[in-house]
């Protein structure tokens, strides 16, 4: 049986009530969510909701936030920090995705965040503040449909600055993994030219980030000059941690190759792990980690002419 949910985030709703947000803190289980499951996987997916959603800030795409994924008894997207505030820029879980701004550099009071909506630029601000939560002027319309093993999010936004889009994200579980399929239609008059990345936030409770973890890349990257970290060792295409990680690691990586697709894998202390493949060239890559999470941040280029569409898929396989 197919279920359908229409999220109350329709074009025309006034979002001024979110200009100075006051969060109502709830247990994670209280936020709107659905479960996808098969014989091997149980996945909890939060649903976009302007009034009650798990994430209502403006840095990350509101769709596809995975609150939990258990495969053969091991959690892959556990909590990577203490506490939660729906309006705080980084309070997300799971493979959280980010699009670059549209129209921020233009002489306009507003700019677009795909997966969020039309945001208001504070008067006098000259540079985008990635860790700020902006006022949402127009969240567009959201719809969500789900079945036992798949969920589809659609956001549509049209504003009077020439930008308009239809953004669809489908998450589906497989026997031993899942996929995230994206489709972005440019329904406006201006080219959509930006980038997108996935922060991932892989977290494997009860294990803490340290020597028992290994990250393997498709290519043999090097750390960008000036960002070296003696807690991390890269030999060829293999990254390891030389000690338990307490303070965050931030490593911009170079020499990533020019392949038409890219990927990496993370192996956890029980000799299992996850392999990730994306069917797009890698634009840039950063490795971020803290004591509870490992996050290869893989960027791709987004370029969609008016009346055209771009598709891309990320595949995750557990082993």
Topology overview:
Layout: E1 3-5, E2 33-37, E3 41-46, E4 66-71, E5 74-75, E6 97-99, E7 110-113, E8 117-120, E9 136-138, E10 141-146, E11 150-158, E12 164-174, E13 177-186, E14 192-198, E15 214-217, E16 222-223, E17 232-235, E18 238-241, E19 249-254, E20 262-267, E21 273-278, E22 284-289, E23 294-304, E24 309-318
Antiparallel strand pairs: 1-10, 2-3, 3-4, 4-5, 6-14, 7-8, 8-9, 10-11, 11-12, 12-13, 13-24, 14-23, 15-18, 15-20, 16-19, 17-18, 19-22, 20-21, 21-24, 22-23
**Strand runs, count:** 24
The main pleated sheet reads as:
11 strands, antiparallel
Poorly predicted runs: 1-26
- C-alpha-based Rg, rounded: 19 Å
Sheet with the most strands: spatial strand order: 1-10-11-12-13-24-21-20-15-18-17
Q: What number of domains? A: 2
The pLDDT mean sits at 92
> Helix/strand-derived class?
mainly beta
Number of helices: 0
| Coarse morphology | globular
Measured by DSSP, the beta-strand proportion falls in 35-45%
Short descriptors:
single chain, 319 residues, mainly beta, eleven-stranded antiparallel beta sheet, six-stranded antiparallel beta sheet, 24 strands, 0% helix, globular, disordered N terminus, DUF4861 domain-containing protein, signal
Describe this structure in words.
With 319 residues, the protein is mainly β. It folds into two domains: 3-198, no CATH class; 214-293, no CATH class. The chain is built from no helices and 24 strands. It has strands at 3-5, 33-37, 41-46, 66-71, 74-75, 97-99, 110-113, 117-120, 136-138, 141-146, 150-158, 164-174, 177-186, 192-198, 214-217, 222-223, 232-235, 238-241, 249-254, 262-267, 273-278, 284-289, 294-304, 309-318. The strands form four sheets. Strands 1-10-11-12-13-24-21-20-15-18-17 form an eleven-stranded antiparallel β-sheet, with no helix packed on it. It has a six-stranded antiparallel β-sheet with strand order 6-14-23-22-19-16, with no helix packed on it. A four-stranded antiparallel β-sheet has the order 2-3-4-5, with no helix packed on it. A hairpin with a 4-residue loop joins strand 22 (284-289) and strand 23 (294-304). The chain starts with a strand and ends with a strand. The model is unreliable at 1-26 (pLDDT under 50).
């Amino acid at each position: 049986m197919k279920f359908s949910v229409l999220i109350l985030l329709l074009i025309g709703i006034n979002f001024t009530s979110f200009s100075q947000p006051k969060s109502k803190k709830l247990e994670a289980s209280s936020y709107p969510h659905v479960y996808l499951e098969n014989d091997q996987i149980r996945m909890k997916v939060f649903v976009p909701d302007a009034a009650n959603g798990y994430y209502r800030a403006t840095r990350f795409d509101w769709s596809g936030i995975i609150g939990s994924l258990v495969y053969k008894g091991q959690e892959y997207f556990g909590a990577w920090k203490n506490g939660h505030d729906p309006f705080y820029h980084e309070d997300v879980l799971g493979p959280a995705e980010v699009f670059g701004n549209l129209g921020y550099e233009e002489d306009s009071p507003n700019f677009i965040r795909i997966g969020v909506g039309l945001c208001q630029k504070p008067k006098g601000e000259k540079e985008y503040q990635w860790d700020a939560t902006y006022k949402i002027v127009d969240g567009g319309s959201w719809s969500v449909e789900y079945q036992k093993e798949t969920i589809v999010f659609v956001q549509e936004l049209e504003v009077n600055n020439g930008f308009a889009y239809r953004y669809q994200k489908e998450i589906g579980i497989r026997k031993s993994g899942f996929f995230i399929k994206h489709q972005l239609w440019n329904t406006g008059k201006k080219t959509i030219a930006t980038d997108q990345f996935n922060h991932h936030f892989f977290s494997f409770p009860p294990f803490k980030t340290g020597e028992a973890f290994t990250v393997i890349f498709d290519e043999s990257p090097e750390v960008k000059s000036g960002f070296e970290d003696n807690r991390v060792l890269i030999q060829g295409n293999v990254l390891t941690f030389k000690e338990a990680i307490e303070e965050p690691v931030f490593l911009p990586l170079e020499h990533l190759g020019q392949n038409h697709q890219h990927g990496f894998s993370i192996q956890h202390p029980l000799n299992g792990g996850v392999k990730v493949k994306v069917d797009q060239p890698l634009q840039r890559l950063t490795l971020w980690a803290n004591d509870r999470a490992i996050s290869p941040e893989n960027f791709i280029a987004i370029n969609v002419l008016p009346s055209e569409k771009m598709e891309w898929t990320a595949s995750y396989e557990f082993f």
